[in-house]
Write a structure and sequence with these properties.
Length: about 550
C-alpha cells in the first residue's frame, strides 16, 4: 500500500495557470510561486465581488480519535467528485501548521487519492504566509518592549502586558519565559509567553479581514497591554500598524493549488479549532463562492469546536449562509468511543458501535440547532462490515439526516460520487435556515454558558477568579457584544479528553479569558488546553528526511 506522500509525489500536476483557467481566472490575475502554486490578485477579488454566490458546503466531523476520521480527505474527495459530475466546484481549506507536521498529527493535505498538491510544499513553508504572520506578531512584541525601554511614554504597566510572542512550532519550554535578562540596555526583566502562530490573534485577524483596509483597522485595535491606571494600549498607540500591514501584504492574498484530479483549491490561513477559531480565511471562502457553483470548506476538529466557531464567529462576522453540512464519522472511531481499544477496532462489534454512536448523535443534534441540512458520511475502511454500516445508516435516517458512504481515500473522486449526489440532492430539496446559536446581545457569560450547555452538554460553567475579573474588564471596555471563541480539548465534548462518547454530569471550567479585540471575539480557555502545544516522546520529525535528489520522505 502506497503512503500519502508517495501517491502525491507520483501525481501528474497541471500548471497552476491551467487549473486557474478552469474556473475563469486568467494568468494576469495570478502571482506565481513556481509552476504549481499561485496567489490570486486583489484586483480579481475586487472584480468578482458583485457576482452571485455559489452553494457553500461545510465539512465537519465527530470528535477526533486515534482511529482517524478523514475530514480534509472527505473535503477534497467531495470536491473531486463534484468535478467528476460536471459541476463547477472549488475547495477552500486551511494551510497546515509546522507544529503538527513535526509533532504527532501530521499535515493537512488530505490522504490517499483525495489530496491537494504539491503536498510537501503545502505542509512545509508553502508561500510563506505563516512566516509573515509570525514576523508581524513579533514585530509588535519588539515595538512594545522597545517603547518601555525608551521611556515608556504611554505609561505601560509591565505587569499587565497581554501580547505574546509566537512561533509556528510545538515548543513547550517557551510557554512561560523570562525576557530582558542581562544589562540595563537589554530591556526590562519581565515574564513573557509564546503561543503557536496558528493560535495568534494576527492569524485570526488575517483570516477574518476582507481587504487591506479592514486588516489595518483590525491590527490597530489589538490590545497589547494596560497602563498603570488600567487603560488599554493598542497596536495603533505603538504606531505599529503600517509596518505590520506591510509584512502581511502578500499573506493576505489567498493561495491557489490543485487536487490530485486537478480540482482547484484555495488554501489560506490556518487557525487551530481547539485553541482558535478553526476556519480558513473569509477572503478565500467569499472569493471561492464568486468563482464556483459549489464550494466545499472545512472547519477543524469535531463539530463542537470547528463547526460551532464557523457558524458563530466566521459566518456571523462575514455574513456567510451555509447551505449544507457534511458530518464525517468512521465506524472505527465510533467503536473507539464505545470503549474498544485501538488494536481491536478491526473486529465487528455492534455493541461497541451502539455505545459509541451517541457521540455522532450529539453532533447531529448540535448541527441541527443551526438550521442547516445535515448529511452524514462514513469514511469507509476495509474492516467495516455490512451490518455495522447498515446500523449507522439506519441511525442517521431515524434522526432526519441523509447518509452516504465515502470511499475517497481509496478511489479519489470516483469514491465520492455517492456522497456528492446525496449533497446535491440535499441542496435541491432541503432549504437552509441558518442562524447562529446565540444573539450578540447576550452577556459574555451567557454566550459561554450557551455553548457549554447546548453544544457540549455541560450542566454549567465555573470560572477562575482571574477569568471573572477579565470578563468584567472586557465588558466594561465595550466588548461584551463579541462572540466567544472557546478553547478546549478536541478529544471530548467536555473539557476532559478522557470523557469519550456523550458525557453528562460535568461542568466546563474557564480558567482564563482574554479579548482578541482586532479579531472581534473573546477567547475563553477551558480545562488544561494549551495555546503552545508540546512535542510527543517520538515526534513525527524523527521520520522526516530529504535525499540527495531533494525528495522529501516521511511526511504524512
Amino acid at each position: 500500500m502506497k503512503s500519502d506522500i508517495e501517491i502525491a509525489q507520483e501525481a501528474t500536476m497541471l500548471p497552476i495557470k491551467d487549473v486557474a483557467a478552469s474556473i475563469g481566472i486568467e494568468e494576469d490575475d495570478l502571482e506565481l510561486y513556481g509552476k504549481y502554486k499561485a496567489k490570486i490578485s486583489d484586483e480579481l477579488i475586487e472584480r468578482t465581488k458583485n457576482q452571485p454566490d455559489g452553494k457553500l458546503i461545510l465539512v465537519t466531523a465527530i470528535n477526533p480519535t486515534p482511529a482517524g476520521e478523514g475530514k480534509t480527505t472527505t473535503s477534497v474527495g467531495l470536491g473531486q467528485a463534484l468535478g467528476k459530475l460536471g459541476k463547477k466546484a472549488l475547495i477552500a481549506l486551511r494551510e497546515p501548521s509546522l507544529g503538527p507536521c513535526f509533532g504527532i498529527k501530521g499535515g493537512a493535505a488530505g490522504g490517499g487519492y483525495a489530496q491537494v498538491v504539491p503536498m510537501e510544499d503545502l505542509n512545509l513553508h508553502f508561500t510563506g504566509d505563516f512566516h509573515a504572520i509570525t514576523s508581524a506578531n513579533n514585530l509588535l512584541a519588539a515595538l512594545l518592549d522597545n517603547h518601555i525601554q525608551q521611556g515608556n511614554e504611554l505609561g505601560i504597566d509591565p505587569r499587565q502586558i497581554v501580547w505574546k510572542r509566537c512561533m509556528d512550532m510545538n515548543d513547550r519550554v517557551l510557554r512561560n519565559v523570562v525576557v530582558g535578562l542581562g544589562s540595563k540596555m537589554d530591556g526590562m526583566v519581565r515574564e513573557d509567553h509564546f503561543v503557536i502562530t496558528v493560535a495568534s490573534e494576527i492569524m485570526a485577524i488575517l483570516c477574518l479581514s476582507e481587504d487591506m483596509n479592514d486588516l489595518k483597522k483590525r491590527l490597530g485595535r489589538i490590545i497589547v497591554a494596560y497602563t498603570f491606571d488600567g487603560k488599554p494600549v493598542t497596536a495603533e498607540d505603538l504606531h505599529a500598524v503600517g509596518s505590520m500591514a506591510a509584512l502581511l501584504k502578500d499573506a493576505l492574498k489567498p493561495n491557489l493549488i490543485q487536487t490530485l484530479e486537478h480540482t482547484p483549491a484555495l488554501v489560506h490561513g490556518g487557525p487551530f479549532a481547539n485553541i482558535a477559531h478553526g476556519c480558513n480565511s473569509v477572503r478565500a471562502t467569499q472569493t471561492a463562492l464568486k468563482l464556483a457553483d459549489y464550494v466545499v470548506t472545512e472547519a477543524g476538529f469535531g463539530a463542537d469546536l470547528g463547526a460551532e466557531k464557523f457558524f458563530d464567529i466566521k459566518c456571523r462576522k462575514a455574513g456567510l449562509h451555509p447551505d449544507a453540512v457534511v458530518l464525517v464519522a468512521t465506524i472505527r472511531a465510533l467503536k473507539y468511543n464505545g470503549g474498544v481499544a485501538k488494536e481491536d477496532l478491526s473486529r465487528e462489534n455492534l455493541e461497541a458501535l451502539k455505545a459509541g454512536i451517541v457521540n455522532l448523535e450529539k453532533h447531529i443534534e448540535n448541527l441541527q440547532k443551526y438550521g442547516v441540512p445535515v448529511v452524514v458520511t462514513l469514511n469507509s475502511f476495509v474492516t467495516d462490515t455490512e451490518a455495522e454500516t447498515r446500523f449507522v445508516e439506519d441511525f442517521c435516517h431515524e434522526r432526519g439526516c441523509e447518509f452516504a458512504l465515502s470511499e475517497v481515500w481509496e478511489k479519489g473522486g470516483e469514491g465520492g460520487i455517492a456522497l456528492a449526489n446525496k449533497v446535491l440532492e440535499t441542496l435541491e430539496t432541503k432549504e437552509s435556515h441558518f442562524k447562529p446559536l446565540y444573539e450578540d446581545s447576550l452577556t459574555l457569560k451567557e454566550k459561554i454558558e450557551t455553548v457549554a450547555k447546548e453544544i457540549y452538554g455541560a450542566d454549567g460553567v465555573t470560572y477562575s477568579a482571574a477569568a471573572e475579573r477579565e470578563l468584567k474588564r472586557i465588558t466594561d471596555l465595550g466588548m461584551g457584544d463579541f462572540p466567544v471563541c472557546m478553547a478546549k480539548t478536541q478529544y471530548s465534548l467536555s473539557d476532559d479528553p478522557k470523557k469519550l462518547g456523550r458525557p453528562s454530569g460535568f461542568t466546563i471550567n474557564v480558567r482564563e479569558v482574554y479579548a482578541s479585540a482586532g479579531a472581534g471575539f473573546v477567547v475563553a480557555i477551558n480545562g488544561s488546553i494549551m495555546t503552545m502545544p508540546g512535542l510527543p516522546k517520538k515526534p513525527a520529525a524523527f521520520g522526516i528526511d530529504v535525499n540527495d535528489e531533494g525528495v522529501i520522505t516521511g511526511l504524512f
